[in-house]
């Protein structure tokens, strides 16, 4: 009976450490969700700090500029000081940012707060997957990985549910509790065994692994870890290998396509401005209530890929996701085109049936995005790169994503104010259609392939590109793979 109990509770400490680490994402992603309830207050008649639409777009988008620095700080310090101390430090800019908002008297203080939030956000997003990957045993790696997305969606739900019903400064005080809570929880967690072995501290690594696995028989696993650490040290600079090795360059193209494809759907603009978008709809629910429904649907949707990604495969999920996103965005684009360019087609009465069309379109988009584009790129990111350059690939992915997010979020407000919201939605629809075509032509299927087999396919593809030879398996009919 005790053996059976141990079997059930064997991974308890790993889950505790994973939950404590991913609470950093609740704290940091709350900063992204904050703009949805905060913008209507800042742009309203009783605004604590009156701002123009252009200043509002900077308040939303400066988070992405700040988050560019997160992966850079991570790359500089994570191997020098360790995963745990640097992840704890990510809470410092978050706390400072909320205090700036609490005491803000000018739009400049809001800008500073958003840049600080971005730094904390970028750090948490770069570091948490590294920490999870190094503490999790194979049996729980999938579920701890999904925690990253679930915790992020919880943060949106928190801000959307609390924000509309408390004051502007009260929301900042409440949000300040999230990074403080993360520090209190994570402070007691161990450093990763990999980092401790890399620093030559085998005794501390053994203690850490013993606590995580709840077992005293760890010698075999510790030996495997030592071997991996030694191999990665012998292979030299990971960034240089990422950019210069032929097979890695092919993998990088795949990751860049997925990164651009994810963001050019407009997901961050729609989430950041959801309350502003919904305030335009003639519906019996308020914009705040519609945002809460959106956040709940989003949280439910990200659970789906957990069950689907290893059954349906990567390509089918990505293609279904892009198709659904395209239809949802097109519904919104058509509605806003009629709303903004005609006077007699849509009724302005609250509760008019067609008011549900764009809301349904946004929900279809959110669900479709969640089943593939939101999660599958992270699964592929973990599969197409050798272990010793995953961290470097992660950082490149994060930097490029932040840059694209900034452009999309900033331009959304500019285009919507200058030309109309419908123009922004048509651009998102067109970009999503193009992403679907490129996914069909370029992305390989990695379902059920061993890590070694995937590396073999990427290498063969790299060589065939250089020699003009044949394509690898699964590339026939998709010439861009070569």
Automatic annotation (TrEMBL):
Q: Where in the cell is it found?
A: Cell membrane
> What is the membrane topology listed in the Swiss-Prot or TrEMBL record?
Multi-pass membrane protein
Give the family this protein belongs to, as stated in its UniProt record.
Answer: Belongs to the major facilitator superfamily. Sugar transporter (TC 2.A.1.1) family. Trehalose transporter subfamily.
User: Function of this protein?
Assistant: High-capacity facilitative transporter for trehalose. Does not transport maltose, sucrose or lactose. Mediates the bidirectional transfer of trehalose. Responsible for the transport of trehalose synthesized in the fat body and the incorporation of trehalose into other tissues that require a carbon source, thereby regulating trehalose levels in the hemolymph.
Residue intervals of the Major facilitator superfamily (MFS) profile domain: 16-447
Q: Which GO terms describe its molecular function?
A: trehalose transmembrane transporter activity
**Which InterPro entries does the entry link to?**
MFS_dom (IPR020846), MFS_sugar_transport-like (IPR005828), MFS_trans_sf (IPR036259), MFS_Trehalose_Transporter (IPR050549), Sugar/inositol_transpt (IPR003663), Sugar_transporter_CS (IPR005829)
For this record, the Gene Ontology CC terms, alphabetical, are: plasma membrane
Q: Which PANTHER family match?
A: MAJOR FACILITATOR SUPERFAMILY (MFS) PROFILE DOMAIN-CONTAINING PROTEIN, PTHR48021
Record flagged with keyword Zinc = no
Q: Which UniProt keywords apply?
A: Cell membrane, Glycoprotein, Membrane, Sugar transport, Transmembrane, Transmembrane helix, Transport
**Species whose genome carries this gene:** Anopheles coluzzii
SUPFAM superfamilies linked:
MFS general substrate transporter
Q: What Pfam families does this protein's entry cite?
A: Sugar_tr
- Name of protein: Facilitated trehalose transporter Tret1
Give the residue spans that cross the bilayer: 56-78, 85-103, 115-132, 139-158, 170-189, 252-273, 285-309, 316-336, 356-380, 392-415, 421-443
């Amino acid at each position: 009976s005790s053996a059976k109990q141990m079997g059930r509770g064997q991974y308890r400490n790993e889950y505790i450490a994973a939950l404590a680490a991913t609470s950093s994402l609740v704290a940091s992603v709350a900063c992204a969700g904050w703009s949805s309830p905060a913008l209507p207050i800042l742009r309203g008649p009783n605004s604590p700090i009156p701002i123009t639409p252009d200043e509002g777009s900077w308040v939303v988008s400066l988070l992405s500029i700040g988050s560019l620095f997160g992966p850079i700080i991570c790359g500089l310090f994570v191997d020098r000081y360790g995963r745990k101390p640097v992840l704890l430090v990510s809470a410092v800019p978050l706390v400072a940012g909320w205090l700036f908002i609490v005491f803000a008297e000018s739009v400049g203080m809001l800008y500073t707060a958003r840049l600080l939030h971005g730094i904390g956000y970028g750090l948490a997003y770069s570091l948490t997957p590294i920490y999870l990957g190094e503490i999790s045993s194979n049996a729980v790696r999938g579920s701890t990985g999904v925690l990253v997305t679930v915790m992020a969606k919880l943060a949106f739900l928190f801000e959307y549910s609390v924000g509309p019903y408390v004051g502007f400064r009260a929301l900042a005080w409440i949000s300040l509790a999230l990074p403080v809570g993360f520090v209190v929880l994570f402070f007691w967690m161990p450093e990763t065994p990999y980092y401790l072995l890399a620093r030559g501290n085998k005794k501390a690594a053994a203690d850490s692994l013993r606590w995580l696995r709840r077992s005293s028989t760890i010698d075999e696993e510790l030996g495997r870890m030592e071997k991996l650490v030694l191999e990665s040290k012998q292979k030299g600079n990971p960034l240089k290998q990422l950019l210069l090795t032929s097979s890695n360059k092919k993998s990088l193209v795949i990751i860049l396509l997925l990164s651009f494809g994810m963001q050019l759907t407009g997901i961050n603009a729609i989430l950041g401005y959801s309350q502003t978008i919904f305030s335009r709809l003639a519906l019996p629910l308020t914009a705040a209530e519609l945002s809460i429904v959106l956040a709940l649907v989003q949280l439910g949707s990200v659970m789906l890929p957990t069950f689907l990604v290893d059954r349906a495969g990567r390509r089918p999920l990505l293609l279904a996701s892009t198709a659904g996103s395209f239809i949802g965005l097109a519904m919104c684009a058509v509605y806003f085109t009629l709303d903004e360019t005609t006077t007699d087609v849509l009724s302005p009465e609250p509760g008019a049936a067609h008011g549900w069309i764009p809301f349904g379109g946004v929900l279809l988009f959110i669900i479709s995005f969640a089943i593939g584009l939101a999660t599958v790129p992270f699964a592929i990111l973990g599969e197409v790169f050798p272990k010793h350059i995953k961290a470097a690939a992660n950082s490149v992915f994060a930097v490029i994503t932040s840059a694209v997010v900034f452009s999309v979020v900033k331009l959304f407000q500019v285009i919507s104010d200058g030309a109309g919201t419908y123009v922004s939605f048509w651009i998102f629809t067109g970009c999503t259609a193009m992403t679907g075509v490129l996914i069909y032509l370029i992305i390989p299927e990695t379902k059920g392939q061993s890590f070694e087999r995937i590396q073999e396919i990427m290498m063969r593809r790299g060589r065939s590109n250089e020699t003009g030879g044949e394509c690898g398996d699964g590339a026939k009919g998709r010439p861009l793979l070569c």
